[in-house]
Specification:
The protein is of the alpha/beta class. The chain is built from 12 helices and 13 strands. Strands 1-3-2-4-5-6-12 form a 7-stranded parallel beta sheet, sandwiched between helices. Helix 7 links the parallel strand 7 and strand 8. The radius of gyration is 22 Å and the shape is elongated. About 45% of the residues are buried. Bound molecules: alpha-D-fucopyranose. Alpha-D-fucopyranose binds next to strand 10.
Length: about 350
């Protein structure tokens, strides 16, 4: 494949092929003439390629590649080794930019150094890099969500649902699955707890369930443990840093015999809960703050492309918002946002 004749094309590099791509295979066109027509190549790495959220980011990144005429290489980088090998392989194929949601934000300094050495411009998406001093690396370009604000909206929505059901702060407790090692996750759940406390839920009824892994099993296990200790709670308000952190909690509640009559849950992403909202019988999963996968997938690529081609540097820090979807409106909103047909 040494003639990138199509206007664009995308490639998914399986982990095992990365090293090969780095030494053997080359997509770079040979000769001067070919070089002049070579399209810009960008890499888009994500930490959890199996999550619908990241698949949608990739889908919108593909759209940007089609619209703007660059070449996109998608890499599922689930650990630090894969990230570093991926950067090598991108450099070997002549890529000029990398958009990345890193599997570990503390890899920030290593990623930034390696990208610089490889001549790749860098844009962190979703999860902001953390420096050696434990603080966000604000010198690395970043597009993420307004995490605290979105978390507060989740808390306010849950408080509203409590009132609608006629539950009182005295007979209601909050279960929040937490993943504090990730700053954007901590900001979201702290925001939700702040709003719920402000709505009158007593401090002693706010329960954190720390997740060991940021996925459905991690959330399920955390909440199963919590429920063995808090069996006497009447009603539950449930939240977490994303849809999966809430879906596992809903399944754990069901395991303890608690359904939609005694629990109400709100997620974040809006992309990983569609099957749940489509279930004919409502579960406790009431809705989700839908984030803009298009901004995170399409706009990040567009920023990177213009930076490389036209020298237009993107803002150092961009934040996106969320909108509540529920069973009542999710089909329409997902259609409007191009998430679904
Ligand atoms: C983090 C989460 C994702 C998504 C994204 C915006 O990376 O892990 O699920 O919420 O932020």
């Amino acid at each position: 494949m040494n003639h990138p004749t199509p206007r664009f094309f995308t490639t998914i590099i399986p982990a095992a092929a990365l090293l090969l791509a780095g030494c053997g295979r080359s997509d770079a066109p040979a000769g001067k003439a070919a070089k002049e027509t070579a399209p810009v190549t960008l890499g888009f790495m994500v930490k959890q390629p199996e999550e619908p959220w990241f698949q949608l980011e990739w889908k919108f990144a593909d759209q940007a590649a089609t619209d703007l005429g660059f070449r996109l290489i998608r890499i599922g980088a689930t650990d630090g080794e894969k990230v570093l090998a991926g950067i090598d392989s991108l450099a070997a194929t002549g890529a000029k930019g990398l958009v990345i949601c890193t599997p570990d934000t503390r890899l920030g300094p290593a990623i930034a150094a390696k990208a610089k050495a490889a001549g790749l411009k860098l844009l962190a998406v979703d999860d902001q890099f953390i420096g050696a001093d434990g603080r966000p690396m604000t010198a690395v370009h970043y597009l993420g969500i307004s995490a605290a604000k979105i978390g507060e909206s989740v808390g306010q929505t849950l408080a509203g649902e409590m009132k609608k059901r006629g539950w009182t702060p005295a007979d209601t407790a909050v279960c929040v699955t937490t993943f504090d090692e990730l700053a954007t996750a901590r900001e979201r759940t702290d925001g939700a707890l702040r709003a719920l406390a402000a709505a009158g839920i007593p401090e002693k009824n706010l329960f954190r369930a720390p997740m060991r892994t940021p996925d459905i099993p991690g959330s399920f296990d955390a909440v199963t443990t919590l429920l063995t200790r808090q069996g006497s709670v009447r009603n539950w308000l449930v939240c977490g840093f994303n849809d999966n952190a809430v879906l596992g909690a809903v399944r754990a509640l069901e395991g303890a015999g608690i359904g939609a009559d005694r629990a109400v849950a709100i997620g974040i992403n809006g992309t990983d809960c569609i099957v749940e909202l489509e279930k004919p019988k409502p579960t406790a999963f009431h809705g989700s703050m839908l984030l803009s996968a298009k901004d995170h997938g399409y706009r990040t690529c567009e920023m990177m492309f213009r930076w490389i081609r036209d020298g237009v540097e993107p803002p150092l820090d961009s934040r996106t918002t969320g909108v509540l979807i529920t069973r009542d409106n999710f089909r329409q909103v997902l259609r409007e946002q191009g998430v679904r047909e």
